[in-house]
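Page 47, continued from p. 46.
Same chain as before, 107 aa.
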Amino acid sequence: VNATGGTLALRSCRIVSNRRAGVALSAKAEVELERCEIETNGTHGITLLGSSRARISGSKVTANRKEGVSVDDGSTVSATESDLRGNQGGSWSVSPGCHVDSRGNLD
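Result:
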């Protein structure tokens, strides 16, 4: 799933085995991921660039080839009650100038 700008809501979906990131946001895109499974993707489970925003709740972001969630270029993530374990690069990659609010996650 690639989003350049705009707003997207994904609920109870499964995003698996993509060659690159499972979810890629750029250019101030906003996404809400609720009860989703984002697994076994070729790079990150979720990657944010260009001041994008993501709200992740009750989701599973696991077994991806890089970090579960990569936050770059002034982006923001709020993650609650989600499983971010088992990614090859760890749970998070957060660049300076980005913000992550992580509560009640397995990471």
